[in-house]
Amino acid sequence: MSLKLTILGCHSATPRTFAHPTSQYLEINNRSFLIDCGEGTQVQLRTYKIKFSKINHIFISHLHGDHFFGLVGLLSTFNLYNRENELHIFGPKGIKEIITLQLKLSKSWTKYPLLFHELEKTESELIFEDEKVIVKTIPLKHRVYTNGFLFQEKPPVYKHLNVKAIANYPEIEICHYHNIKKGLDFTCNDGTLIDNSLLTIPHNKPLSYAYCSDTAYHPDIVPIIKGADLLYHESTFLVDKQDLANTTMHSTAKEAAQIAQLANVKMLLLGHYSSRYKDINRFQKEAAAVFENSHLTEEGKVFHLKS
Amino acid sequence: MSLKLTILGCHSATPRTFAHPTSQYLEINNRSFLIDCGEGTQVQLRTYKIKFSKINHIFISHLHGDHFFGLVGLLSTFNLYNRENELHIFGPKGIKEIITLQLKLSKSWTKYPLLFHELEKTESELIFEDEKVIVKTIPLKHRVYTNGFLFQEKPPVYKHLNVKAIANYPEIEICHYHNIKKGLDFTCNDGTLIDNSLLTIPHNKPLSYAYCSDTAYHPDIVPIIKGADLLYHESTFLVDKQDLANTTMHSTAKEAAQIAQLANVKMLLLGHYSSRYKDINRFQKEAAAVFENSHLTEEGKVFHLKS
């Protein structure tokens, strides 16, 4: 199983020459997802050589500009490139109106099917599922309605045969392999039951990625993200600005680390840094004092997990 | 009199790493104007060290994304920077709804006064005037309602005194200077009239800049832009794609030059190049064959005119 996260932008608020607002590109179990889409995301996708054609699902956490102002431009570019595949947009109620109004007034309705999945629930819900991956919302606590997203690999439907082990049972012929791959035990002619686990190789553990931005410190999310392999949790401030974090409903690096610790995740990524901090290493230090496996997101950085 | 034009973006359609969509920053007679605002314009303003605080008037030609998708981000950034000054937006009807919907849904209404001047006339109209500059629309011919803009310096209200000439007339005392600066003639005690032109230095010729993008070849604009010191006329294509220019309602470099020639402007700038052309020098060559003083716009290039 495999999870690869490319950071396209990891700074808060205003785009600057070398500090793009939030966007991430996730490849998980052969599926590709774009998470948030601040202004300039389409250029960042090009910079990091991500094929536009791979993006069929876009998840928008909330309707603050630094998380979605790049969306309408990306959708227009898809159109110019004669995209034909369906595009699914998941985001807060209102996103459809924002996009369709602009497309309508520019008389440039997309030639490809554009499907909106507007979110308004305040409890975690399953919003995407296919044979490879499921995606659930993580209701967050911010100044506007906001969701994080939990991406989980599904275990493979078919197991790998343990060819060496099977060779010990001449009664098992090729025609039985399909059932064994499906997980069924094998019954010999003499009635002996051979447990499936003796005939197959256990699949690797499915991986999961929890994306949580923007949010105040909100331990209610812990049961949802429990045990995630990778957690991105916003850390707009350091503890020196705890008051500001509280009033703006953002988190400090310390709080991000506390959530990581409570949820017992494997690895924490920090981001959405306020531009007031010139040295972002301070975020890593503050978080690592609480949760050791804390890392900084930076533009172009790729986090690759395998199991 | 002085006119300084900085090119922030000059390519058509999709933003690329080093090819931003249309935006220009014009300084004319001590006034500053932003013209069009494609995605990434706020970053380009930073790249070329243009102070955000100088922008109080933004002119949007039409509601195709490559001319306005950067606007909402710029307005939001002004807010984050605690802007207090009024900001005036001139653009097609609908622009107010697009911007206000996004600000409403992101719960981030600007703290500074944001004033929309929506345009819907199909004849040239005066849309801005102060003591230094006037701005008129140039109705263009495109797939959606589109205006170019004609920026004209106003002659100074007060003339410069010709101190040497005045010294020849002892009767002219300091208390008379104000009327002479205003352009009045002087009457001596013996009734002789001294023409104002003998007592003042003629001011330099006011300059003008005509911005025309996007548009098909449209000679109707010629009377409006007649004699402009500087004309920017879009040239999305070369003559090899005349058919495409016709169907998409864009112009070729040759057509831009023909307009420049008909309007007897002093200098032509080309831009809005289609990404299909790798060598943009071809635009200059095609235009210069018709109108010699043709030049390419390029990102970061500054055109400075003085009179």
Quick synopsis:
Two copies of one chain form a homodimer. With 307 residues, chain A is α/β, with parallel strands linked by helices.
What is the secondary structure topology, with strand pairs?
Two copies of one chain form a homodimer.
Chain A: E1 2-9, E2 23-28, E3 31-35, H1 41-47, E4 57-59, H2 65-68, H3 71-80, E5 87-92, H4 95-105, E6 114-119, E7 126-129, E8 133-139, E9 147-153, E10 160-161, H5 163-166, H6 177-181, E11 186-187, E12 193-194, E13 200-201, E14 208-212, H7 222-225, E15 230-234, H8 242-248, H9 253-263, E16 268-271, H10 281-288, E17 294-296, E18 302-306
Parallel strand pairs in A: 3-4, 4-5, 5-6, 14-15, 15-16, 16-17
Antiparallel strand pairs in A: 1-2, 1-18, 2-3, 7-8, 8-9, 9-14, 10-13, 11-12
Helix pairs in contact in A: 9-10
